[in-house]
Specification:
This protein has 499 residues and is an alpha/beta fold. The protein folds into two domains: 7-269 and 473-494, Aldehyde Dehydrogenase, Chain A, domain 1, CATH 3.40.605; 274-462, 3-Layer(aba) Sandwich (Aldehyde Dehydrogenase, Chain A, domain 2), CATH 3.40.309.10. Helices cover 40% and strands 21% of the residues. The protein has 16 helices and 24 strands. The strands form seven sheets. A seven-stranded mixed beta sheet has the order 14-17-18-13-12-20-21, sandwiched between helices. A six-stranded mixed beta sheet has the order 9-8-7-10-11-23, sandwiched between helices. Strands 5-6-24 form a three-stranded antiparallel beta sheet. The structure holds NADP nicotinamide-adenine-dinucleotide phosphate (NAP) and magnesium ion. The site of magnesium ion has 5 residues, from strand 3.
Length: 499
């Protein structure tokens, strides 16, 4: 992507943006059945970007019906794998050609720094779809060892109509993590993006159709989750729902499934992720990783390392260097290419984060950085990067997912205590572990109960590795890698008795 653009050039590109605001059903944009709309707000200044179709159950039913028809007549589900791959590679080409536009849409809709959208989110999203497209004609099925009188084939088939419910923190990227493997496996999709961030999803759906993904295969229905979620997840003709979002809504989805057709549900949920720093860690190496882990995407990140569990002997050195490092991430207008910290998604979420900061102070955490709302005159929801020292594991800010730029530093006195504190949570999404001792690294990486443990880094690994959570951070789901691809298919046995 061309990222030599200056701020003024970026503003000019934003002025040229065209917004897709209607539901995308059966290859066409159409208004919501009720004709209602809602405003999508720019979190950096509080202005309305566009009015989006506020869909309801009628629109979901229409989208599911066309997705079902597309699935049953085989226009995508029965297409030869090589041909499906060709269409998806064309889709990838179009995404690449429009990458800057998608990056700008996510930046203004979600308040994400354009720096991140251009360098991380959108390249990662496109790579994900590319990777799954390439996998389509490289997966072989199996024949079971049953002797000469039978042929027992174990094959994989697409699941059918798959609903997808997306969060607002990585709009295009979370969509790609789901549509890449699900389309590659031959399913038909009905996607509900987060209410705050539907613009990139609607544009990506249009590009999919231009690329030749048949009508009815990829539908996007924007609107409120409280209305569309139950309609989609209780629908008897939806075979699976893939969800990324909060643990509380995840629980609702399991109920909707149990009350309807036992559709497959996969859940990618919240986290209260530990960063464990042992006494022998290379502190200069820890600092940039701790920074990314705690504050990347304003801490609005499911795998954010919001608990820094650090051996007391190195805590002061680490904290001093980390605080110094925070000054290298400018907070400001997300469209300024130098900005690394943008606004929070909306005023109500900012209020929640500020309330957690107050609770942290009341419960005895020692505020050593930030703690306040800033740039009020911009009309945006900006909160300073915030660090509490001397946090006890029993405090609220050590236990609950804040989903904002608030880091809790929890000092410990031994390696064993560090690992024990890391595991004292109902969540289990991601963790990082810093030590120079490879024996400890191996042993403790196994001991930490999380779906991803990164050693001497903050990373979810690349697309070749699965991503998903233990405990209340997830339910069966894994995004990325061939494991993601598999979960969008059903396993079938075909047993043939020979005469
Ligand atoms: P959220 O409130 O759970 O919303 C996620 C999605 O669910 C949105 O599209 C929302 O629609 C929809 N929804 C709301 N109520 C629903 C219902 N009753 N039935 C079905 N769907 C419903 O979460 P969020 O605030 O957008 O995202 C933050 C959470 O997501 C955090 O907990 C974070 O940790 C988690 N997350 C996890 C991962 C991961 O991979 N594990 C990645 C990113 C985020 P509306 O937008 O219309 O409300
Ligand atoms: Mg918005």
């Amino acid at each position: 992507m061309n990222f030599t653009l200056k701020s003024s050039a970026i503003q000019a590109e934003v002025a040229k943006l065209r917004f897709r605001t209607k539901a995308f059903i059966n290859g066409k944009f159409s208004p919501s059945a009720s004709g209602k709309t809602y405003a999508s707000i720019n979190p950096a200044n509080g202005t309305t970007i566009a009015n989006i179709a506020a869909c309801d159950e009628t629109d979901i039913n229409r989208a599911v019906a066309v997705a079902r028809k597309a699935f049953e007549d085989g226009r995508w589900s029965q297409m030869k794998p090589g041909d499906r791959k060709t269409v998806m590679l064309k889709f990838v080409e179009l995404l690449e050609a429009n990458a800057m536009e998608i990056a700008l849409l996510d930046s203004i809709d979600a308040g994400k720094p354009i720096y991140d959208c251009v360098n991380i989110d959108i390249p990662d999203a496109i790579h994900c779809i590319h990777w799954h497209a390439e996998l389509i004609d490289k997966l072989y099925e199996r024949v079971a060892p049953c002797g000469p009188d039978t042929v027992a084939m174990i094959v994989r088939e697409p699941i059918g109509v798959v609903g997808m419910i997306l969060p607002w923190n990585f709009p295009a990227q979370m969509m790609a993590w789901k549509i890449g493997p699900a389309l590659a496996a031959g399913n038909s999709l009905v996607i509900k993006p987060a209410k705050q961030t539907s613009l990139s999803a609607l544009f990506i759906a249009e590009l999919a159709t231009v690329a030749g993904i048949p009508d009815g295969v990829l539908n996007v229905v924007p609107g409120a989750g409280s209305v569309l979620g139950p309609a989609l997840c209780r629908h008897m003709d939806v075979d699976m729902v893939a969800f990324t979002g909060s643990t509380s809504v995840g629980r609702d989805l399991l109920r909707y499934s149990a009350d309807s057709n036992l559709k497959r549900i996969i859940l990618e949920l919240g986290g209260k992720n530990p960063q464990v720093v042992l006494s022998d860690a290379d502190i200069d190496n820890v600092v940039p990783h701790a920074m990314n882990s705690a504050f990347w995407n304003m801490g609005e990140n499911c795998s954010s390392g919001s608990r820094l569990i650090v051996h007391r002997s190195v805590k002061n050195e680490l904290l001093k260097k980390l605080i110094k490092y925070t000054a290298t991430w400018p907070l400001g207008d997300p469209l300024n290419p130098k900005t690394r910290v943008g606004p929070l998604i909306e005023p109500s979420h900012m209020a929640t984060v500020l309330n957690y900061i107050e609770i942290g102070k009341k419960e005895g955490g020692k505020l050593v950085l930030g703690g306040k709302q800033v740039r009020q005159r911009s009309g945006g929801n900006f909160v300073e990067l915030t660090i509490f020292d001397e946090v006890k594991k029993s405090m609220t800010i050590a236990k609950e997912e804040i989903f904002g730029p608030v880091l809790a530093v929890i000092p410990v006195d031994s390696d064993e205590e560090a690992v024990a504190v890391a595991n004292e949570t109902n969540y289990g999404l991601a963790a990082s572990l810093h030590t120079r001792d490879m024996n400890k690294a191996h042993r403790y990486a196994r001991a930490i109960r999380a779906g991803v443990v990164s050693v001497n880094s903050f990373s979810e690994g690349d697309l070749t590795t699965p991503f998903g959570g233990f405990k209340e951070s997830g339910f069966f789901g894994r995004d990325k890698s061939s494991y993601a691809h598999e979960q969008y298919s059903e396993l079938k046995t075909i047993w043939m008795q020979l005469g």
